[in-house]
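Follow-up to my post from last week.
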Amino acid sequence: MSRKIIQLLFFIVQNPFISNFMTGRPYNGPTKSFCAPGLHCYSCPSMAFGCPLGTIQYVIKYATMIPYLAIGTLAAFGSIFGSASCAYVCPFGFFQELLYSISPIKKDSAKLHPKFRYFKWGNLILLVIIVPAFGLAQGFCAWICPAGLITAGIPIIVANEGLRSSIGVTFYWKVALTILFLVLIFREKRAFCRYFCPLGLILGFFNRISLLQIKLNKDTCINCHACSKACPMGLNLPDEINSIDCIKCGECVPACPPNIHALSRKFEFVIPKKKAVKTD
Amino acid sequence: MKRIIIVSIILLISALFIVKAWTHEIDEYGTKEVNLVEAAGKNVCMSCIGLSDENIFEKIFGKDEEDEEDE
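User reply:
Got it. Predicted complex:
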């Protein structure tokens, strides 16, 4: 089954309450006690699950404790699949890929400098952990998250006239930032995931040890970098296979020339021993 | 080293974390972490949707005395 179909299925499973957009009220059933491993807003009217990033910030801010539920959920998914849920489950990742596919300004070779990836670390350490820990705000949700504005903020304000008087500086800041993100998303595939998403970073911590692994056969690889051109995260492949920024989507595997077959993706239960270097 | 052993240990710890979130009471009123998650998820989060203009400078540095007098 193609990745797009799986993404669509997960999108439907996570957003079954589309009619709630008419009332502008979020679904409040029992599934909201569970986190789905993707970036979405738990205030989005159609969303059936809780947002792991929002949950982490909320629990740290209001209870000043370790967010066991979100961390446990992400660790469970991460240890088995690494950050593959970014490629298959994340609704915002799917949304970005759809926008890029219809973009008139897309450029496959477009890449910001790799140092821009440090924004993810800043978002995670500063806005998801430190700012909520000091009780200041849910930093990432409040000031950065474009998923929150697009899927919750704007639809809820459109549906609830009474909330429009609450629009202030933060809202305009998020609108401006979201426009900037959208320009980047139209230009680069998965631009938000590449440089800004702290959730992908958390899941990426498990990439080296997860059961799902992208395997490179160094004996057959001819370093043609066809895999690198196919990578939606703009990684320098094959060097960055299974790196913290890899989303294990597997797009690199079929990109490898058919007579080479240097790449494969499979569940690995043993960490292979490093080959001894031959010395004469 | 078998990868499956490392992953099994992580899965076990994850399961303990999730069980703790569902069973461990975090205050004298019997609130559990999952209750916080539900509270967050079942309401419109003003902060998430960008409608909460939290005054960060006020939180960090406190209110100016002049402002308090004005109030």
